[in-house]
Every structure is written in structure tokens, then in C-alpha cells.
Amino acid sequence: MTTHRITLLPGDGIGPEIMDATLEIILAAGAKIEIDEIEVGEKVYLAGNTSGIAAESWDTIRRNKIFLKAPITTPQGGGYKSLNVTTRKFLGLYSNVRPCRSLHPFVSTKHPVMDIVIVRENEEDLYAGIEHQQTDEVVQCLKLISRPGCEKIVRYAFEYAKQQNRKKVTCFTKDNIMKQTDGLFHQVFDEIAKEYPEIENEHWIIDIGAAKMADTPEAFDVIVMPNLYGDVLSDVAAQITGSVGLAGSANIGEECSMFEAIHGSAPRRAGQNVANPSGLLQGAIMMLNHIGQTEIAEKVQNAWLKTLEDGIHTYDIFKEGTSKQKVGTREFAQAVIANLGQKPSILKPVSYSKDAALVLPKYKRKPAAKKRTGRRGHLRALARNGSKRTGRESKGNRNPGRHALHDYEPGNQSVAGRF
Ligand code: NAD
């Protein structure tokens, strides 16, 4: 097994405690990693660096390519950039994968058969950072969606479903209102879905889709969506499995990848040895799979499932009658270590032999269509084709560059040419 050098960020709040617990477990299981630790987050922000990270830390992250990160605290008030958003964009971590599975009957949940994976686009949408003040009373945030961004994330979702033997990929958008931006996401979803006939596909408008997911999560399998919807709904999905403290996430790019818990730094719980380290441990398990240490990942996951099955629970999932022992962060880690090599007997044990990193084809830019700009170009094209203007065009929809995407056939290259 190859030893991998990873960058490690202990984070703020409960971060250092859950990171210690996670490292202790994966090293006890035999993970072959070397570690470069960096200091990033609250202290760096408060020392006057508004991006929360020093230039040399970026060098370490880029050199090692694999980054295990505990949550950090973004100080309140203006001027501080979110390091999470910066990291995802700076490293091109386009795919955020968040599995949310219930652990019934050992972790209390209203959804005993839930097992969904949210694949969230991670760089674009309203998180592109294009926000400004228009007038004294009006501010604006622009939603950016590109064809390359859509193709990469949708293909990732289908390839992930194929690798994990999952049956269905669902797309959530609001393209009945945002016809161009969400329309493009939906259109690309429909195009790429055709390349995977063995996997069922469907599209839901986000509002009713979200309601259905919160009420009947067993109706879904893999769900792919633009950035903001994915951010919100992955927290909902994790919480309804039993606790936001249980879910991990992988942020995958073409070169670098980052692994973390989905929750924040929970400052009120810091330093008390109470936090649940499971979310970060799940992130670390995805990291081990990604770097090819699938046997270690499998061993850790099965020991973690067995520990939950034994009723050894941190405060956030502890329930009288179901749980056997309320433990702190360190004691939970020790219990998982004691279970290494064992498998759960009621929960389904995992097998990760096929879980190595996905290798996707690089996005190839489509040749841009000849541009027809404005009314004159449109009229020239009509004259060339000998067509008459249709009633709809004569009512003001005269600039083909401004049509909603629904006016284009799938695959129409003039759409790609505009991004
Ligand atoms: P949070 O996720 O930190 O906490 C929400 C609730 O969940 C709290 O009641 C907390 O006690 C509980 N909780 C979270 N993780 C837990 C765990 N592992 N074990 C037990 N209970 C847990 O969200 P917040 O309070 O909105 O944010 C706190 C700080 O975290 C903010 O500064 C925010 O910017 C930051 N944050 C960081 C990240 C990240 O670094 N990836 C993500 C989200 C929020």
C-alpha cells in the first residue's frame, strides 16, 4: 500500500477534538499516511488575514493534493471571506458528495430506510461571489451556471451511481422560474442521462422535491443539484438521519480533493469532550477510499457501525432505551478502535473493494456556434433562410441571444458558445 502525504487542518471549536479522535482511529486501523498540519481559520482571520489562510498553507495544500479538514469558525462581521467557499473554488473542487444514511434502529430517526447521496455542484451558482451594491437601497448577487460546470457535476453523479450500483439519479432545479440558469442544468442532466440507460433518471422542481425528500427520503437514491440547493438540502438530509454530526463529505476536483464533516465548528461544545467525531470520521473514510486504501476504509466503517450498534453513543444521538452508554469524543474513538476487525450484525456491513477514486473524462469544449448577434444578425439569418417572422418573434422575443434555454433544442451549441 502506498503511503500518501496529506494536509491536515485541525480547525476551530470542536475541530481539534474530533480531528484527534478521527486520526487515532484511522491510524490504529493501519492507514498509511504522512501528515503536514497547517493553521487556518479563526486565529488567522483575527490576526488580520481576511481570507483566513496564509500563502504557504496554499502551497502545502496544492503540493499534497489530499486535504483532511475539520470545521472552522468564520468570525462574525463584514470583511471575512468564507474559507470553505474559497478552498472549493481555488482548488476546483467541483463535486461535493454527501452520503446520508439512517442507522435504524440504533440511531433514532423518523426515516428508518433512508439511504441517499447528495451530489452538490460546488463552485458556481450564487456562490460564485459576484455580489455588489446597485444603489443605496439595492444589492445584487448574480447566479452563474456554466455548461462545463453542469456537465462535470452531472456526469460525476451518474458515474458515482454506476460505481456504487445505485439505481436512480434525480435532478432538483427551479427551471420553471430560472429558465436559463437552472434550465441549463436541467437540460444538461437530460442530455447526460441518455448516456446511462441502465440508471433511472428523473427531475423534480426543487420546492416540491425538497418537501418530498424531507417526508419520504426512501423515494430517492442519488440526487444532483446546483450549489445553493445542495448546501441547504444536504444539511436537511443529514439531520433527518438522526444528527448533523453523523455525515461526512468529499469535495472532489480534477487534481485536489478535500474531505470534511458537513457540520460546523459548534463553538458552544468546544473543549468539553462531548462532540460526535462521526462526521469527520466519515470524511476520512471517503478520503481513504479516494487514495486507494479501501481495505482500511472498510475496516474503520464496519467498526464504527458496530460501535453504534453496541449503543455507545455521544450526546447528540443518545436516547434512553436505545442507547447503552453515553460517551465523550475520546471514549467513542476508543470504542471504535476496540471494534476494529469486527462487523455489525444487524446493520449491513460495508464492502469497499470497488470504491477507489472515480476517473472522469476531462471536459471538452464544444466548438462555438457562429454568433448571430442582436436584431440585425437575426434578420440576416431570417433573410438567408427565407423564413417569415413567427407571431411569437414579432411580439418582442427578437434577440435569439436572449431566449430562455427552453427555446433551444438539447445540444444546441449556441448555448455552450455563450459561456
Ligand atoms: P454547527 O454545525 O457548528 O452547529 C449546529 C448544531 O449542531 C449545534 O447545536 C451543535 O452543537 C450541533 N453539532 C454540530 N456538530 C456536532 C457534532 N460533531 N457533535 C455534536 N453536535 C454537533 O453550525 P453553526 O452553529 O451554524 O456554525 C458554527 C460555526 O461553524 C460558524 O462559525 C460557521 O461559520 C462555521 N461552519 C463551518 C463549516 C466548515 O468549516 N465546513 C460548516 C458550517 C459552519
Question: Mind explaining what this structure looks like?
Answer:
The structure is a single chain. Helix 6 (181-193) links the parallel strand 8 (168-173) and strand 9. The two termini are 43 Å apart. The strands form three sheets. Strands 2-1-3-12-11-4-5-10-8-9 form a ten-stranded mixed beta sheet, sandwiched between helices. The model is unreliable at 386-419 (pLDDT under 50). It has helices at residues 15-28, 42-46, 55-64, 83-90, 147-163, 181-193, 206-215, 227-241, 278-290, 294-309, 329-338, 374-385, 391-394, 413-417; strands at residues 4-9, 33-37, 66-69, 95-101, 115-121, 131-135, 138-141, 168-173, 200-205, 222-225, 248-252, 257-261, 312-313, 325-326. The longest helix is centred in the middle third of the chain and has 17 residues, at 147-163. Helix 7 packs parallel to helix 8 (227-241). The protein has 14 helices and 14 strands. It has 419 residues and is α/β, with parallel strands linked by helices. The chain has three domains: 1-94 and 246-354, Isopropylmalate Dehydrogenase; 110-241, Isopropylmalate Dehydrogenase; 374-417, no CATH class. Bound molecules: nicotinamide-adenine-dinucleotide (NAD). Nicotinamide-adenine-dinucleotide (NAD) binds next to loops.
Topology:
Elements: E1 4-9, H1 15-28, E2 33-37, H2 42-46, H3 55-64, E3 66-69, H4 83-90, E4 95-101, E5 115-121, E6 131-135, E7 138-141, H5 147-163, E8 168-173, H6 181-193, E9 200-205, H7 206-215, E10 222-225, H8 227-241, E11 248-252, E12 257-261, H9 278-290, H10 294-309, E13 312-313, E14 325-326, H11 329-338, H12 374-385, H13 391-394, H14 413-417
Parallel strand pairs: 1-2, 1-3, 3-12, 5-10, 8-9, 8-10, 13-14
Antiparallel strand pairs: 4-5, 4-11, 6-7, 11-12
The structure holds nicotinamide-adenine-dinucleotide.
